[in-house]
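Hi support team,

I submitted a single chain yesterday and got back a structure, but I'm not sure I'm reading the token output correctly. Could someone confirm the output below corresponds to the sequence I sent? I've pasted both exactly as they appear in my results page.

Thanks,
R.
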Amino acid sequence: MRTKLFRDMLILCVLGSPLLSMTQCKQFDEPEIQEEKKTVTLTIRGEQPVPSDTKTYLGENGAVVWEEYDAVYINGEYHQVTPDPEDPTKGIVNGVTEADEYFATYSDPRMYDYNSIGVWISTDQYYKNIDGHSDLSGNPMVAYSTTPELSFRNVGGIVRLGITGDAEIVNITMTSNDDTPLSGTIQIPLEDIRSGELKDSYSFYDSDFYYYKSIYDAKVSLGTEPEYFYFIIAPGTYENGFSFYITDSDGNTSVKRTARSITVNRSHIVPMEDFEFTLMNPEVDASTVSPQSTSVSFTVNGEPGMIVRTAIVSTAVLENYPTEKEKYEFARQALAVSDSENKVVNTAGTADFGWDRYMDPYGAMNGMLAG
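Hi R., thanks for writing in. Yes, this is the structure output for that exact sequence:
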């Protein structure tokens, strides 16, 4: 009887000064005349990354393009950048206090002392592609000059991923296969910035680092020709390569992995092998289901590293939705309110789940497993 009732359930997987008063006399100090600060106008340029493992530049791809509302941090002050209308790789910064030397960062530094500066490589990037140029907002840079001409140098390295297929890509999360940090605060000696001789890679400041990098809100429609995504990460050697978790607008997931050691140097573009987006459809192995009086357990088979979430709904309820699209939307709602924890498929290709009636948002198990 329990077996029959179990067949009536569907398991879904997804992925402020004091005043001094005197009565005899009053003395007024003459106001101090402050000398007006002199300001200068700076011209700034970014560094174009060098491709690695490829013979040609990617057209104009990788060039730093300044946009309206971009701002740079110069000698402890924020200044807005005015892009040159004829050459967007050049920016004009007005009203900078005149100084003997100029230290600048894009974006603001995370730490600053007498010997070094900490530059933030963010965990998240928003996808942007302007005439083939990569997104500036995710590209941290440093600059030094004793003149009004500032040439920024890139801090991060760049990994390029090309994807083909028939889907609209929304999010991509990149991780390292050996738990090497991909993002965080990179500490750079001021002497290196002064000299302009930046190293291929630098260490993280303290423990301010993270093991992932994500591109959000891409909404890129794929086709037969690859669409390219650029991940700005901490330079270094990643002994076991990377994993990329790609999600389309329907919530489907595909995974791309590299197994080889990959070195990503500062200001270099490292291309990954292009690949086709294909759906990962985990299956529930019904033979591993163990119905109990108030619970049920099951195993999901899938690609190792895949993130899985489950929900249980009654097939009788699901059948009330006449179209596949309506069934799909109901299933997504069930997954959204599900008390199931996300699990990662292990190296053996499995993830084990257990459910009881208190985890059941739609009452699919009530009165079905008992008795």
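A quick pointer for reading it: The two ends are 8 Å apart (CA to CA). Let us know if anything else looks off.

Best,
Support desk
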